[in-house]
Amino acid sequence: IDTTTAGAFTITARAGQTEFLSGVPSATQGFNQTYLGPVVKVRTGTTVTATVINELNDSLAVHWHGLVIPGDRDGGPHQAIKPGGTWKPRLDIDQPAATVWYHAHTHDTTAPLVYSGLAGVMLIVDGKDNERGLPSDYGIDDLVLVLQDRRFDASGRMVYRPGMMDRMAGFHGDRMLVNGALDPSAAVPRSVVRLRLINGSNARIYNLVFDDRRTMQLIATDSGLLPRPVELERLRLAPGERAEVLVDFSSGKPAMLSSEEYVLSGGGMMAMMGNPPSLSGASAGNNGAAPILAFEPAADLPAKVTTIPAVLDDNPVQQLAPPARSRFLSMDMMVGGPGGMMGGGMMGQMGINGQPFSMERIDQRIARGSVEMWTVRSTMRPHPLHIHGVRFRIVSENGQPPRMENVGWKDTVLVEDEVELLAEFTRPAAADTPFMYHCHILEHEDAGMMGQFVVA
Ligand code: C2O
Ligand code: CU
Ligand code: CU
């Protein structure tokens, strides 16, 4: 849906059936379609009216992940739409071009809802991609790719039945869907192609790599363009994160985008919990990587961009003021007390700073306009932290300068051990519609690894 002229769009959540495997319908949900939702294009500097209609039998909150907008438009768990209801937030798009997304964010049920298909992509555009020399022909040399791993039963139906291990590690599938398609392939022109990669999985961390080891030029992270492209052979992408890369297909040779396994380091409890199930099709011939998407260069598609631009965004990198204060977050897998795992067995709650999420408790109060330094630590396994309502920069990762994937503007970051980040809190959020910060492993979020904050 292109809103750049109309300034409005409508998405309707409904239940339906999708044949991932032809002839075998799976029960799914989506926006305007049976699985996932439309790609919505919005232009920076404009106001867009969203109409979100809930035709499901349960309440549904829809969050704009990556939009820097006030709390009362954010679509967090306090803004659930009743069955049959409509929500019409006005979205002031006042941030640089970026690939963002929207997804279900209902209290306690985000994981099953997103898994069932309630997610979609939003592209913030600024009309300057031609000038920059970046591919921007949607669906031709500018591809939106939602990566999701899913589990299927013996008859080929998509299933979500998390066991205890899945609650601990997050629910992993063994088959890949790209934009809802099993065993997908993409025809691309014999030119430089832009891939907008969205990790829409509940829990899986990808280590993306091409089977022929061709390089990718990273041009954008979660919240916008980098100053210049960064060459990578491998791209790590955790749940909730996005990356835009340029890939050169001008040789005409096909290539397979694959994922190497993300291997947990460390022992103890983590070793006991084990690594998540691997993706099917991983082969020794491909360095143990599993195939995700086959690219077939086609001579009959228009080859427009043939060189990688040297400069993407010549705006001077925005400097953040020195932080006014610092905070510490510990992403905890075991929260004590009678409901906690230590007290009540393995089905217990997770939390942040020792407390499971509560709709009733405001965890942080932040002065509007201030810059803060947050130190975030993961316990037992890596957790991708997402913060609503801001863009941030990574200062350090595990005591080192940030890895290449994390040098740009971010709204989600994989915290393997410890991450320090700087964020400027420009948008207001009141106590009745606070912003969230949480683990983007959705089973962890639902188990309580989330907190909320006001900005005033
Ligand atoms: Cu993408 Cu609070 O979520
Ligand atoms: Cu968000
Ligand atoms: Cu987590």
UniProtKB/TrEMBL annotation:
InterPro entries: Cu-oxidase-like_N, Cu-oxidase_2nd, Cu-oxidase_C, Cu-oxidase_fam, Cu_oxidase_Cu_BS, Cupredoxin
PROSITE patterns: MULTICOPPER_OXIDASE2
Main location: periplasm
Keywords attached to this entry: Metal-binding, Oxidoreductase
Domain Plastocyanin-like: 15-127, 182-251, 348-455
Entry's localization field: Periplasm
Pfam families: Cu-oxidase (PF00394), Cu-oxidase_2 (PF07731), Cu-oxidase_3 (PF07732)
Protein name: Multicopper oxidase domain-containing protein
Protein source organism: Keguizhuia sedimenti
